[in-house]
Specification:
alpha/beta; Rossmann fold; 6-stranded parallel β-sheet; 12 strands
Length: about 350
């Protein structure tokens, strides 16, 4: 039996019924933050009267506003000199310490096995710390051995060890205003009443980003069958423009749009083609069938729950044009033809 299966050291229900302040720390980009949503959801169910504070990076407030029913406030984490995801000095980090007014009743870091973050959060004012640790490492507080398997299951395993519970399903709440703004975009006006596929060639992480060539081939294959909308950041506009220039029926909808607009466009799509990046988890939240090309080192850890709906192709050893287009055609036959 693992530490996580055993529960907390003395009382496995210490977290349940908490009426104080609970902090959840996760300093990652969109894909990493979307996978952590089941945790504050489980915390809210276990302790409906607690004040839940999400601690994250500068971009994260836009995400947190969609989950006001799970989180009460947001605290900016500027970064730490030891964290590879951030680039700040010790002076910037000290400003966070000043912002930590009062003490957390519970403080829960949600970063892998905690080899870096456990020491960082131990400097913050908290009555109780809880998180994951490497096997054989002794920590004060309620720390449990880091589990293998999908990331969401591991995170929820930690919460269950503290007396909480919850489902691993992803979600992303949308509002009428999100769709009103989407259909007002020039690129989507013509798609409001027409089925379409979203192709998202980009990724902020170069290690998870394929060259645009396979996505251009996918757009050319799909364009005669359905409308195709290319999404991406403003920095990816030129790449998408080169693809749409030679593909009739393909619109370039890249640009500095909000997270809500991106999510709404994926929610209304027949299906979705992308790299293994944040928007792919939005597709999982909306049950939009997807084809994801994965170049990461641990695809099992980041796997989507509905594996039959969200297909991942491991391309760490390369991906031929023919193999990629075969995967696109296969998804079209099983999902696109019916939906579009």
């Amino acid at each position: 039996m693992t530490d996580t299966q055993q529960g907390t050291h003395n009382d496995p229900s210490l977290l349940r019924g908490c009426k104080g302040r609970a902090g959840v720390f996760r300093a990652l980009n969109l894909d990493g933050m979307l996978r952590v949503i089941p945790v504050p959801r489980a915390l809210r169910a276990a302790s409906p009267d607690a004040r839940i504070t999400v601690i994250g990076l500068q971009w994260a407030p836009e995400l947190v506003t969609h989950y006001r029913h799970y989180g009460d406030d947001f605290l900016l984490f500027p970064g730490h000199p030891q964290l590879p995801e951030t680039h700040v000095g010790r002076a910037d980090y000290k400003n966070l310490r000043k912002a930590l007014l009062g003490e957390f009743d519970w403080l829960i870091p949600l970063h892998g096995d905690g080899r870096l973050t456990n020491a960082i959060v131990s400097e913050w004012p908290a009555t109780r710390l809880a998180g994951s640790k490497r096997a054989g490492v002794c920590d004060s507080g309620s720390f449990f051995s880091y589990l293998s398997g999908p990331e969401i299951n591991r995170l929820l395993g930690l919460i269950r060890s503290l007396g909480g519970n919850g489902l691993s399903d992803l979600e992303f709440p949308l509002h009428g205003a999100d769709f009103t703004k989407l259909w007002a975009m020039p690129e989507f006006k013509c798609l409001r009443d027409a089925p379409y596929v979203v192709v998202h060639p980009g990724s902020p992480d170069a290690q998870r980003r394929l060259p645009p060539t396979p996505f251009e081939a996918a757009a050319k294959l799909l364009a005669p069958r359905t409308r195709v909308a290319l999404r991406g950041s403003a920095q990816e506009w030129d790449v998408n423009a080169r693809i749409s220039e030679f593909c009739a029926g393909v619109v370039n909808a890249a640009g500095a749009t909000s997270l809500g607009l991106l999510a709404a466009s994926i929610a209304k799509a027949c299906w979705f083609v992308t790299n293994d990046t944040g928007p792919s988890h939005l597709a999982a939240a909306f049950h939009t069938p997807s084809l994801v090309v994965g170049t990461g080192s641990d695809l099992g850890r980041w796997a989507r729950k509905e594996w039959w709906r969200h297909r991942i192709r491991d391309v760490r050893r390369g991906l031929s044009r023919e193999r990629f287009l075969a995967a696109v055609s296969d998804l079209w036959e099983h999902a696109g033809r019916i939906a579009c």
